[in-house]
């Protein structure tokens, strides 16, 4: 299988400091893949090596099967990059920036005009077309930066902390647009330290201190951190006599009784398969269940558990 991104034993030293520590990474075609971790985890260094902007100290990277070290120009033709910091020409207007980068990617004449027009409309930039980029608001700068990254219709879009410091409506707009691009077949690699945003990704890699500590779907990473899913029951005390014997129940995490009602949290292998049968089995044994639900576990909780522990 040819992956959109395939990194093997990717390592980067800055002097004696190991910023990225022998990571393996596989991004499938047509997915939103997130690199999640705190500032300084090595996310930006990783994507800069994927783009060929930094030379790895060790390891290899391929983009759609193309070796980045051997053919960086070919990789740049099929990737779009939106860096964390605004890096366009602030003394050029919005439209001039779009036209400049479109021409650098080989667009000419009518094709260039049509593409610039499409992006001005798509990102609601037409009213700012003659405004200097340096005079734009933060959210508008981010929209322009994303438009420029997409000017050549790349197969892979790499965005580094795209919503850092922007208002919630812009954050929502970006993620809606990423989903739209995915539907169109574009692969998206996004870095973020916003744990709640990462729930939008199809798959994730959690980075900490230059290493990948976990990877998989958001739900899969949560299960890895806790050893399964957590369900909560409000029921009778007698439920404790039976719960551990039910299929899929791993352990009872905690319990308390208030006003005669037992509130108990139970670790199960898969809440979607086990919650309904647990309730049914208890009721068949004459145990009344007042309420039952899966406990929401955030990626932040999972990240802390995986990196710090209990």
Brief overview, please?
It is built from nine helices and 14 strands.
List keywords for this structure.
single chain, 310 residues, alpha/beta, Rossmann fold, Alpha-Beta Plaits, 2 domains, six-stranded mixed sheet, four-stranded antiparallel sheet, 14 strands, 33% helix
**Percentage of residues in DSSP E strands:** 25-35%
Biggest pleated-sheet summary:
6 strands, mixed
Please give the CATH architecture of the largest domain.
3-Layer(aba) Sandwich
Strand order of the largest sheet: 6-7-8-3-9-10
| Topology order in helix (H) and strand (E) letters | EEEHEEHEHHHEHEEEHEEEHEH
Q: Given the C-alpha coordinates, what overall shape results?
A: elongated
Secondary structure: helix percent: 25-40%
Low-confidence stretches: none
The number of distinct β-strands equals: 14
Cα radius of gyration in angstroms: 24 Å
CATH fourth-tier homologous superfamily of the largest domain = P-loop containing nucleotide triphosphate hydrolases
Query: Might you state the CATH topology name of the largest domain?
Result: Rossmann fold
By CATH reckoning, the class of the largest domain would read Alpha Beta
Number of domains: 2
């Amino acid at each position: 299988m040819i992956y959109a991104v395939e990194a093997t034993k990717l390592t980067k030293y800055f002097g004696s400091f190991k910023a990225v520590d022998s990571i393996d990474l596989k991004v499938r075609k047509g997915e939103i893949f997130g690199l999640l971790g705190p500032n300084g985890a090595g996310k930006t260094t990783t994507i800069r090596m994927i783009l060929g902007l930094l030379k790895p100290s060790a390891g290899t990277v391929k983009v759609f099967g193309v070796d980045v070290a051997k053919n960086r120009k070919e990789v740049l033709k099929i990737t779009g990059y939106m860096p964390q910091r605004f890096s366009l020409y602030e003394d050029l207007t919005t439209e001039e920036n779009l036209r400049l980068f479109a021409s650098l990617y080989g667009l000419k004449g009518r094709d260039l005009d049509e593409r610039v027009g499409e992006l001005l409309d798509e990102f609601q930039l037409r009213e700012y077309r003659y405004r200097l980029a340096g005079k734009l608001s933060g959210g508008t700068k981010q929209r322009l930066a994303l438009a420029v990254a997409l000017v050549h219709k790349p197969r892979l879009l790499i965005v580094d902390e795209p919503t850092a410091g922007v208002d919630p409506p812009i954050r929502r707009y970006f993620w809606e647009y990423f989903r739209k691009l995915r539907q169109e077949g574009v692969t998206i690699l996004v870095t973020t330290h916003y744990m709640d945003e990462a729930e939008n990704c199809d798959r994730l890699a959690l980075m900490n201190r230059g290493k990948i500590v976990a990877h998989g779907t958001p739900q899969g990473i949560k299960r890895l951190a806790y050893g399964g899913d957590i369900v909560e029951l409000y029921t009778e005390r007698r439920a404790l006599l039976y719960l551990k014997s039910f299929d899929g129940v791993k352990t009872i995490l905690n319990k308390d009784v208030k006003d005669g009602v037992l509130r108990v949290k139970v670790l199960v292998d898969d809440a979607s398969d086990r919650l309904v049968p647990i309730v049914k089995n208890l009721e068949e044994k004459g145990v009344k269940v007042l309420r039952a639900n899966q406990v929401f576990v955030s990626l932040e909780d999972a990240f802390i558990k995986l990196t710090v522990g209990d």
